[in-house]
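Protein modeling request. Please complete all fields; requests missing the sequence field cannot be processed.
Requester role: graduate student
Desired output: 3D structure, token encoding
Chains: 1
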Amino acid sequence: MSVLEPAPPGGVMTRLPDSLGAGELTPGLSDTSPDEGLLDPLTVEDRAVEQLAEGLLSHYLPDLQRSKQALQELTQNQVVLLDTLEQEISKFKECHSMLDINALFTEAKHYHTKLVNIRRDMLMLHEKTAKLKKRALKLQQKRQKEELEREQQREKEFEREKQLTAKPAKRM
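Delivered output (172 residues):
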């Protein structure tokens, strides 16, 4: 049975131990996890951890700071764009409401024209009605006059017949 070699002084293993060849399996170790079956936990020095952390930070921190600054700029630009977009939306709503107002004025003009036409038609009908009433009154007066004349003619004829009728002579 082979035992893992202790970690090198830097704390990081860079190659497989000599006792294990490529493709050899360690008896008692599972394929599923590299941490399984370690006999002794690796001892890591605090200094090595500090150096690794500093190295990692020095490597990634400038990029992260640039990314942070770029994100802040993008966020500011996004806020400006949102404000501009809101202004454009309000302008669009104003234009849309102006179109609605124009449509209302057009519709009002259309109905005004209809009202003017209806008024003209009503005045024309009023004039025709007045003329018809006047004509009806004249006809009625003419009929009454003709009837009166006929009545007078009948009375004259009746009087005439009365006069023409033989009267018995009065005895004296």
